Amino acid sequence: MIDQSLILISAGGLFDFGATLPILALQFLLLMFVLNLILYTPLLNIINTRNQYVLENLSKSSDLLSQVDALTEKYEAALKNSRSAAQTEIAQAQKDYKASIEPNFVLVDNLTSSYVSSVTKKILAQNSQLFQLMFGDDVDYKKLDSYNLSSQLFYNICFPYRQIVSIKL
Q: Which of 78, 81, 85, 134 is deepest in the core (most CB within 10 A)?
């Protein structure tokens, strides 16, 4: 066993601490310095710049959102006030319109009723003239019931040349 441990410790063995180990350590440190200088520092700068840009945009967007919320509330309040004012104005206009039209309705109603009554009088006068032409003057219309009147009308229309004797009740 001693022979084998001597092989491990002797020159060129597994644990030979010659100049190779310090040179490898120096190469590693030099490589780390160069990589840090060339690769890591610019990459970290870019990442930091990007993070700063994102944070600035987030803060700007949150400010803009708060402004939008404030403007939205302001416009909603203005819209609510406008709607209530418009509804009040519409109600007032309807009242004014109704007040200005109401006398005209009464006037139109009076004119219509007077016109209807005058037309009714004219129609009744024409009807009495028509009955007098059809039946003559000797018929008393108040004494005729609806059956006798309709039968006389029927006979006068169907048989215009035949003389009907008035029925005396």
A: 134
All residues at 6 or more sequence positions from 134 whose CB lies less than 8 Å from its CB, including other chains: 153, 156
Contact yes or no for 142/169 (Cβ under 8 A) = no
Higher-confidence residue of 66 and 129: namely 66
Q: Does some domain include residue 158?
A: no
Give the angle subtended at the CA of 143 by the CAs of 141 and 145, to the nearest 5°: 85
Q: Tokens 């509804």 — which residue?
A: 87
Give tens-digit pLDDT for 123-157: 877 777 776 766 665 555 555 555 566 666 666 66
Torsion angle of alpha carbons 116, 117, 119, 122, nearest 10°? 170
Instruction: Please enumerate in sequence order all residues whose Cβ is within 8 A of that of 7, keeping only pairs 6 or more positions apart, or say none.
Output: 13
Determine, yes or no, domain membership for 148: no
Could you tell me the pTM of the whole model?
0.39
Classify residue 11: in a domain, yes or no: no
Q: How far apart are CA 110 and CA 116, in angstroms?
A: 10
- Using alpha carbons only, what angle is made at residue 114 by residues 112 and 119, rounded to the nearest 5 degrees? 95
Q: How crowded is the C-beta side of 140, counted as CA atoms within 13 Å? A: 5
Number of independent structural domains in the chain: 1
Q: Work out whether the CA dihedral 153, 154, 158, 159 comes out positive or negative.
A: negative
